[in-house]
Write a structure and sequence with these properties.
There is one protein chain. This protein is an alpha/beta fold. It is built from six helices and four strands, in the order βαβαββαααα. Helix 1 links the parallel strand 1 and strand 2.
């Protein structure tokens, strides 16, 4: 279950490449997608704003974008690659601070949210939003449980490979986070 992780404009304080990759693998395991491949880009606000402007016509930074391999005319459902999840570390850090949470938990939640978008989940209706929140929580719990499991030295390796996709399916979940913290 390859997880390809790229850290751009980093390193970022409080962000462990190994932990992010391990949590992503745990989420794929929880989804019974052990044979699938996921690419993750951890970046800054400038880069995610560019992507948000190009693909979503929104000229502002966002927290997470998902570029699904299986969407659109050129989508290939037989491909093992799910797609790319792009996370802005500065935005995630601000959101974690606003919620009085820690960065690792915020990154885990954003990764789960982006991964679900890659799989076609959405939150356009209240019912969809409830289901997606529940599944996000389930994936975060699986990632946290895996993080607590004992590790064999050298068992976690982070592979780096640059990939790009032509489709975007991202959004800012800050508004939902603020609704839940009320």
């Amino acid at each position: 279950m390859p997880v390809r992780l790229i850290v751009e404009d980093g390193p970022y304080a409080g962000v462990s490449r190994a932990s992010v990759a391990r949590r992503a693998r745990a989420m794929l395991e929880a989804l019974q997608m052990r044979d699938r491949e996921l690419s993750i880009l951890l970046t800054g606000d400038d880069q995610i704003q560019k992507l948000n402007r190009i693909y979503r016509k929104k000229n502002r930074p966002t927290d997470v974008l998902a570029f699904a391999q299986h969407e659109g005319e050129l989508g290939d459902r037989s491909d093992r690659l799910l797609g790319d999840v792009v996370v802005s570390i500065p935005t995630a850090r601000r959101q974690a601070e606003a919620r009085r949470g820690d960065l690792e938990s915020e990154l885990t939640m954003l990764l789960a949210h982006g991964l679900l978008h890659l799989l076609g989940w959405d939150h356009e209706t209240a019912a969809e939003d409830r289901r997606m929140r529940a599944e996000t929580s389930r994936l975060c719990a699986a990632a946290a449980a895996d993080a607590l499991a004992p590790r064999v030295k050298g068992a976690v390796k982070s592979r780096v490979k640059s990939t790009s996709r032509s489709r975007a399916n991202g959004d800012s979940i800050a508004r939902r986070a603020s609704r839940t913290s009320r």
